[in-house]
Amino acid sequence: MYPNLSAWLLVAASVIAEVAGTVALKYSDGFSRLLPSGMAAACYALAIWLMAVAMRQLDMGLTYAVWAASGTAAAAVVGMALFGEPVGVIKVVGLVCVVGGVVMLHLGSPQ
């Protein structure tokens, strides 16, 4: 079992909080709606805090790369699923490249 599993679970929770914040940001209508605006700010603050706690045990470069890429890919998928954003071959290939890049970063890191 991974010794840093709990830290990676914190990164996963951080990604979920960041994507929730992004969805709230979409509903905030340019920060003109109070509740979604507050939710966006709270979710982003939680995401940063969770990532900071995870970085106590994980390397910064890999942690941030996983967080940023996972959040980007998840936000794109949520946008397609919830908001009817267009899905195309180029978009799907781009998402695969983002995920593949993070996998390669992880494989290239000494264990």
Automatic annotation (TrEMBL):
Cellular localisation: Cell membrane
Superkingdom per UniProt: Bacteria
Statement: the UniProt record of this protein carries the keyword Transport: yes
Main subcellular location: membrane
Keywords: Cell membrane, Membrane, Transmembrane, Transmembrane helix, Transport
One Pfam family this sequence matches: Multi_Drug_Res
Protein family: Belongs to the drug/metabolite transporter (DMT) superfamily. Small multidrug resistance (SMR) (TC 2.A.7.1) family.
Protein name in the entry: DMT family transporter
Species the sequence originates in: Acidovorax facilis
